[in-house]
Amino acid sequence: MAKSKPLHWKEPETENCPQCNGSGEWRGMFGSGPCAMCDGTGLVGEDGEPLPREDLLAMMRRQRDRIAGKLEEARQHYRQLLHTPGVREALAAEYERKQERQRDEDMAHRKRLRGG
């Protein structure tokens, strides 16, 4: 009989890899590459062993979903701000100021290049 998977997956306890200090990369004198101890993830289990790929994939999916949710919240907040009176005008004025500053910097740079 095949093993059944638990209905609710629990994220494993993790620690930073002691070999790479959680960076996921080893650095040598003449090169660098993914850490062999943690498979380049920067995380190991409580026992110091690399995490199983199934757990890593589930953790990455959860992190991706959390980030996507935060991005959508930020987009909604931005849309709401655009409907606030005066915000669009203030954004347009700031955009114009930035363009003017960039034009001034470009002109000064051209003048220096010409020796003036």
Textual characterization of the structure:
- It is a single chain.
- The protein is mostly helical.
- Among the domains are: 52-83; 88-116.
- The protein has two helices and four strands; from the N terminus they run E-E-E-E-H-H.
- It has a two-stranded antiparallel ribbon. It has a two-stranded antiparallel sheet with strand order 2-3.
- Strand 2 (25-27) and strand 3 (32-34) form a beta hairpin.
- The protein is flat.
- The model has no long low-confidence stretch (mean pLDDT 87).
- Residues 96-116 are annotated as: Disordered.
- This is Molecular chaperone DnaJ.
- Residues 96-108 have a biased composition (Basic and acidic residues).
- It comes from Salinicola acroporae.
- InterPro entries: HSP_DnaJ_Cys-rich_dom_sf.
The parts where pLDDT drops under 50 for at least 5 residues are none
H/I helix tally:
2
Structural class: mainly alpha
The outline comes out as flat
Q: Rg to the nearest angstrom?
A: 25 Å
Count the E strands: 4
Arrangement of strands in the largest sheet: 1-4
Order of helices and strands: EEEEHH
Give average pLDDT, whole number.
87
Q: What is the terminal-to-terminal distance?
A: 85 Å
What summary fits the major beta sheet?
A: 2 strands, antiparallel
Estimate percent helicity.
40-55%
Strand residues, percent: 5-15%
Biased composition (Basic and acidic residues): 96-108
InterPro entries: HSP_DnaJ_Cys-rich_dom_sf
Region (Disordered): 96-116
Protein name: Molecular chaperone DnaJ
